[in-house]
Amino acid sequence: MERYLIDTNAVSDYLSASLPEAGLAFMDALIDGIPTISIITQIEILCWKAEDAVEQSVRDFTGDSIILAINPEVIERCVRIRRNKKIKTPDAIIAATAMAYGFHLVTNNEKDFIGIEDLTIINPVKMI
Question: Is this model's pTM higher than 0.85 or not?
Answer without folding.
Answer: yes
